[in-house]
Structure formats: structure tokens, C-alpha cells
Amino acid sequence: MFSTSAVTMITLLLSAVFLSFALLLWRPVIRLLVKSPLDNIPGPTPESYWRGIFGKVFHADAIDFLEDIAKTYGSVSRIPSFMGENWLFIFDPKALQHIVGKEQDAFEETDAFIASNKLAFGDGLLGTLGEQHRKQRKLLNPVFSVGHMREMTPIFYDVAEKLRGTLLKKVQNGPQEVDVASWMSRTALELIAQSGIGYSFDELTEEHAPHEYAIAYKQLSPASYNFVFVRNYLLSTLVKIGSPKFRRYIVDMLPGKNVLELKNIIDVMHNTAVKIYETKKRAIAQGDAALAEQIGRGKDVMSILMRANMSASAEDSIPEEEVVSQISTIMAAGADTTSNALARVLHLLAKNPDVQEKLRHEISEAKEPMAQLEHDRLVNLPYLDAVCREMLRLYPPVYMVPKAAQKDTVLPLHTPIKGLDGSEIREIPIQAGTNVIVGIAAANCNPELWGPDSYEWKPERWLKPLPEAVPQAHIPGVYSHIMTFLAGGRACIGFKFSLIEMKVVVSVLVESFRFSLSDKEIHWQLSEVVAPAVREGGVSRTLLPLIVERV
């Protein structure tokens, strides 16, 4: 029998579900009665009043569609959503300065984003807002200094050399077709595991059986797709009902294979995180000698964070459960983005053999054979830097980020647009609750700033002064006048990690191997992170088959 408190909580849960559905059904009525400031903004025609065009925007094959929207409507456009609701797709530089800079508190991550990350990873950086988020970043920021990057570089080389050794065995008898996406995924996970949490999941050999955490992590995203409706419209309400223990009790009672699968995935990730945390906690208590014996030698992000939190004042420290949550958060934030960035670089080099040869020559000239380039020398190789910057500009791993307006505000525009009524629009009133899509890829390819060749991959553009319009636009991104790593309080805190990881792996692989295209057609699909895929039998699979041969 249920206790009185349990019955009360279940009643609240059912009431919350009913209320969420009621609000969802009330939306079209509100839209018919209340005119939106976005109604005058040009944009694509909805497929229907009920569906809008969300089926095209949030679709695996949406990359070309989003590019067409940017080219057709410019830096601001209206995106018809479900039931007559309008979203704003924007990459105007002045508006971006307000969204992620001057008024970043007025534009937070959407409720669905925060709730789903909180459910999967706990109260880490991806699942928190406001003061709670700022306090966590304050503790983590010192870890990502240039000085610490220098200390981490040998760890990155160790992982890259393991991958190199495995690939040498694969191609010892001649060129072989290799699924580069799979190996970059495993490598990126191991890079962030060793440097981020001081743990090893993968020996990077063909014989190595995948760690249960690595399996769970890879299954998380596809398993979550089965709950898109719940995530977008119900989850943000449900996670506020009762205690975590009660919510888990409800989940355990829910039937269905998909629910059980997602629950097991999250359990594996959480239990592994707790195990790693407890091991580190004991090592810290034993002193520096014990830490030095661990992977990462006590210099990984989590070890430094835990020690900083232990010595912080009560005002600046964070609860233990938030520290544990950073483990899966660090893995989630650093693995997929880096792996697909690496895959994209190698794909581009395979498509552009002249660029690949020029890069190989630069790397070989800069170092002794089989030696490691020290950190400062590596980061200052001009052509390697240009190749990485241009890839990150044209092909950001995350193409867009939704935000939700927390209050009424006004977005000024760098370039005025013409409304549907013919009027000139220099600023856009934004009502609280309006959803805004920050077009990261579109901002990086804005032809008004980058010129008519903005959609072409040209590493050489970084070897000469950029067009004057680029610095004059004051793009708010934290890196190189582009929005790839965002800006403000939600900017990618580990982007320097990612850049060094990428340069280490690319330098090691390009020196040793030549990459060329196979006969399989590769296309890139949109998800949380853009990923390569091959269609086989009408089904797309995440693959990047390239021909790899020893130089």
C-alpha cells in the first residue's frame, strides 16, 4: 500500500502532467488572441498550423535547410513552430551581443535543455542556471588556464600515440578502409576521461572490450530520442515534483522497454561517476603521493576541482552531489564535440589532398621524426592552426543553440531587415517566453562579414588579415571572431582543452598516415552534435569510412 505522502506526491505528479497538457492545448488559443511582435518577421511558410516547420528544422538532414533559411532571409527569420507558435532564428552580430553577452541573464537555456541534462547528468554545469551555475564555473575556471594546458599536453600525446600504434597495425599490409568516426569517438572519450576525470575507459586497441560507461554514453542520445515529446513539453514540469528519491520511485514503476533502457543507461553513468568520485576522494585524503599514482597524476580536472572545493569557503563551495555530477557533465561536454571535430578535419583533409600534404610538410619540418611537439610550438604552427580554425568556423560541431527569453526585452540589429508589411525593422521586441535559436553555423558564415566565399573551406583565409567587417562586427564568441564555442556565462568552458586535443591528434595522425576518400558517399547529419553518416539499405549509420595508408 502507498503511504499518505506517496499518494499526495502521485496526485501532484498526475496534476502536473494534466496541467502541462492543458497549457500545451491552450497555446493555439493564445496565439489566435494575442498578436506576437514576431508576426511581422519574414520566414519560411509552415507546413501546417499545427506542425509549423519544426519537422524540417530539428531533423537529421536539416543542415542544408538551415543554410537555405540563412541565405534566403538573412540574419533574422521567423521559424513557425507547433500550434502557431513562432520562434526566432537569429545570427545578427549586434543581437547576439545582447543574447549571449549584455543581456545573457535574459536569455537562458530552454527548460527542456536544463531538465534533460539534469536528468541525465545531475546538477552539473549543463543542468544548472543562475547563481548555482556561476558558482560551479568559478571553481572550474582556473583548471582551464594556459599553464594547465601545458601540463595536460603529454597526456593528450599518450592517448594519440596509442591510437597511432593501433592504426599502424591495421594498415601494415597496405591501405585499408577504416571507420574513422568510430576511432575518433573512442579517442575523444579517452582524451577527456584521462585529462578530465583521471580515469581510463579504453586501451584503444581492436581487442579491447568497451567499458560499460562508454557503451552507456553512446546509447544515451539515441535512447533519449524516444522521449522527444516528453522532454520538450513535460519534463521541465515533472523534474520539479517531489524529491529525487520520489521521482526515481515513479520511474521505477513506469512500464515499457524504452523507459527501462534509458533508466539503465543513466544508472550506469551515475554509478560509475560515484565510483570515480569515491576513489579520488580517498586518494586526496592519502596525499599527493597517492594522487600521483592515478591516471592524470592528480592534474586532471576533477582532482583539481575536488581539492579546490574542499579548501573553498562555505560561501564558494558546492555540495558533494554537484561535484559528482561534474564527472558525467565533463564527459558529455568534451567527448562528442571533440570526436566529431576530429572526424570532420580528417574528412576535409581526405577531400583536399593538397591541404593535407602542405600540413604534413609543416608538421614534419617543425619536429624531429617521432618526437613530440611541445605545447607552445604545437599551438603556434600557422597552417595547422588555420586548418583547425577554418573547420571550426565552417563546420561547428553544434550548429545552433535554443534560448528562452526570461523577460520582455528588445534586440537591436546590426543590419536592419524589412518586415512583411514593408517597414524597416532596426530592433525586435521580445516577449518573455519567446524561444530564440542562436544560429552558430550561420553566424560563422555570414557573407556580410566574411565575404562571398564565406561558405567555402579555405584555411588560407586565416594566414592573412581577415575582412575588416569581421572584427568591426564585434562577434561575441570567445574564440577567433566565431560563435562555435559560444560566449558569456554559457560559453564552452573547456574550449582550450578541445583545441589542444585536436591539434595533438591531427599532428600525430597526419605525420604518420595519408587519408583519402573511399567509394562510399558521406553526409553529415544534425543531432545534438553534427556527425558523419553513410546510407546503407535506406538506413543512415554513423560512419566515416576513409582509406588510410602509411606515409
Automatic annotation (TrEMBL):
Cofactor(s) this protein requires: heme
Coiled coil segments of this chain: none
GO MF assignments: heme binding; iron ion binding; monooxygenase activity; oxidoreductase activity, acting on paired donors, with incorporation or reduction of molecular oxygen
Name of the featured protein: Cytochrome P450
Cited CDD domains: CYP_FUM15-like (cd11069)
Swiss-Prot/TrEMBL keywords: Heme, Iron, Membrane, Metal-binding, Monooxygenase, Oxidoreductase, Transmembrane, Transmembrane helix
Ligand binding (heme): C492
Pathway membership, UniProt: Secondary metabolite biosynthesis; terpenoid biosynthesis
Subcellular location: Membrane
Similarity comment: Belongs to the cytochrome P450 family.
Pfam families for the chain: p450
Tagged with keyword Glycoprotein: no
Organism, as annotated: Agrocybe pediades
Lineage of the species this protein comes from: Eukaryota, Fungi, Dikarya, Basidiomycota, Agaricomycotina
A cellular-component GO term for this protein: membrane
InterPro entries documented for this protein: Cyt_P450, Cyt_P450_E_grp-I, Cyt_P450_sf, Cytochrome_P450_monoxygenase
Entry-linked Gene3D superfamilies: Cytochrome P450
Residues annotated as transmembrane: 6-26
